[in-house]
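It would be a great kindness if you could assist me with a short task in structural biology. The matter concerns a single protein, recorded as an amino acid sequence and a row of backbone structure tokens. Could you please explain, in whatever detail you think fit, how the structure tokens follow from the sequence? Thank you for your consideration; the sequence and its tokens are set out here:
___
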Amino acid sequence: PAPLRRYLDESMPDVLASIEADLKTTGKWTGQVFTRRQNGEVYPLYGSISVVEVSDSGQRRYVAALSDVSKLREFERKIHNLSLYDPVTGLPNRDLFIQKARIVLNHPESADSSPHLLLINVDGFTTFNETLGYDNGDLILKRVSERLDEALDGKYISSRTLGGSFALMVTHLHTADAIDGLIERIRLVLSTPFKSNEQTISLSASIGISSYPADGDEPQELLKKAGIALRRVKQEGGNNHAFYQKGTEAKSRRFIELAAPMRRGLEYGEFKAYFQPIVETVTRRIVGMESLARWQREDGNFISPYEFIP
């Protein structure tokens, strides 16, 4: 009908045609359309339009019940963004990163494209949060995201994954030297001091790296392998980087397998001190003892210190 068509002039022509088709065939329509405010702003309306036959006259009237749902749609948009983006840095979260990374892996820019996934963890981020407060912790995360962008010139997919960790997928670096150069730029921009509430802060980072397709052909697998490499860097003191190496996964799995039994072993006294005498060769007197930790589990088996001390 002409009055409705004028009122809903911002809707697409095919939407208006669909409304008229529904009204002719069923006498009613339900859905969303667009119109314009007096200030020119386009906004959405949701509701229904029905055809009413005027008795004895053969005339038809149209009853429209439409509501402004612009605030509802804005709320839905914010909820959608919260489900896909980190609210502190504005970067994609892990789920959206995986979606984007999968597209990159399935549709490479060129035949010689060589994607690498970098998992970057800010050293001591938990301590920053505890000592400077969470507001300063959020500021640090924002600065890290800005400086990563500075180091990579926009040629990457990024995400804040958890806590002080960020994931990057780069596809334009084809040699080990190029990767090393990127890592040096990242470490340089992060170590450059900045102010946070009168505090001067300089950061360092630990970085684990996995490569496609050698270490996996799915983003989740590459994240896992980069995480294993990152854990090795952390165990060695941090502020460094490492590529994933085959075989380290078994060590990581063993580490996880022993974590819970170690807690139980400490609680139930399964760890014992063994003493190895230090003997003076001339007098053959015992002049001291070396104290050694030994772990004998409930089943009688000994676990080597090589496994449990790390």
Remarks:
- The longest helix spans residues 248-267.
- The chain has a mean pLDDT of 85.
- The CA atoms of residues 75 and 81 lie 10 Å apart.
- The radius of gyration is 32 Å.
